[in-house]
Amino acid sequence: MIDEIYNCRPGSIKTYHFSDEWEKTAITFEESLTDEQQNIFHKV
User: What is the 3-state secondary structure (H, E, C) of the chain?
Assistant: First the structure.
């Protein structure tokens, strides 16, 4: 992955797309958290 980023080949990096419903729910959830809780959530 580092090689793809360094050599500007972002098309070969696999990313995941969750459903639109999940992303809306996750955004609302994250906005309700404090900064400390967001940090813990992202680590998990």
Answer: CHHHHHCCCHHHCCCCCCCHHHHHHHHHHHHCCCHHHHHHHHHC
At 38, list the tokens.
């967001």
Count Cα neighbours of 12 within 13 Å in the Cβ-side half-sphere: 9
Task: For the chain, report the end-to-end CA distance as a whole number of angstroms.
Answer: 21
Give the pLDDT score at 37: 93
Q: Does this model's pTM top 0.70?
A: no
* pLDDT at 34 > cutoff 80: yes
